[in-house]
Amino acid sequence: MKFTVSQSSLMKALTVVSKGMGTNSTLPILSGIYLRAAEGTLELQTNNLTISIRHLVPANVEEEGETVVSGKVLLNIAKTLPDAAVTFETEGRMVTISCVKSTFRLNTLSAADWSSFPEVEAQRTIELPSELLARMVDKVYRVTSKEPTRQYLQGIQLTVEDNTIRLVATDSFRLAVCDSSVEAAPEEPFCSVINGAVFHDVLAMPSMTDTLSIGTSENQVVFTFGTTTFVTRQLEGNFPSYRQLLPQSCATAATLNVEEFSSALKRVSVIAQQKATIRFDVDADGGLIRLSASSPDQGDSSETISCEVEGQTLSIGLNYHYVFDCVNAVSDASEVRLELQSANQPSIFKCNGKINYLYLLMPMRL
Questions:
Q1: CA 180, 123, 170: angle at the middle one, nearest 5?
Q2: pTM here?
Q3: What mean pLDDT value characterizes the chain?
Q4: How far is CA 40 from CA 5, 55, 98, in A?
Q5: Which domains can be identified in the chain, with CATH numbers?
């Protein structure tokens, strides 16, 4: 095998497929990158038994062939090379990589031991605008669970129906929902639960195009964009039914300036390092919210924010880590609305715009 590819194309391709490299695997080949040169194209693949990635780049192929190279080593080499032509040439169990005055000779693994790329026969497929989808995923993926025992809570539920795209995520302590209008209108409602971290990684890839095609089969989800194909497993289990958790009314509502609220929250939470509870005292008569935190070892802190309040005076305790995640999700908006029912019922944060966002958060004991 012998081919030449530009350093910039190689680096971009390695960045894409490196997301599928195995780490700490008992199978050394899973930490490698499969290279195949044929018909003016370099094909790169990775597979860690959970996800498989394939990416194609143009190359000057003098001699067709295939091999498997250590992914970590190849990525480190590519990072250090100048933006010039890079030539790969195999001889026996070695591959020589040369660029300008640099030469590397690496051991290779047998391409015969590489698993063939999964070919998914998608039962349902939809194409969505990737920029909008990336903004929406960024608002909800942090809410997914990190517990491996509840795999279905690690996912984001994606539904597309009646020209509306909706994403939902929950870890059982909080719930994030966002929706937006979209031109894609499938004949039948499209619904799939996709691993949140994987969904976020796919949309952050440097090879992402204006649109992303998502296909689903019984056991797998396949993402296709440009010359990149990304395949992952379907999550096991049923996504929770969340609609009955959303209250139809509230006793108290306060409209907060996002920037002012974020700054106050950061200052008050300095004292809440050991006990993550921050008290929210909503004063309907005074038109303000008082944020406060206390620690037996460090003392206490408080700050008052003027705001528009509807309804009755009410107090509630909330986990400041979770509130921060909400504030970060609405950082592109000017205002956020806080709706409360009682001190013992979930709070709701809402923000409307091009992307409508709702964040439900369970209360903490005061």
A1: 45
A2: 0.91
A3: 93
A4: 10, 14, 19
A5: 2-113 (3.10.150.10), 124-233 (3.10.150.10), 247-361 (3.10.150.10)
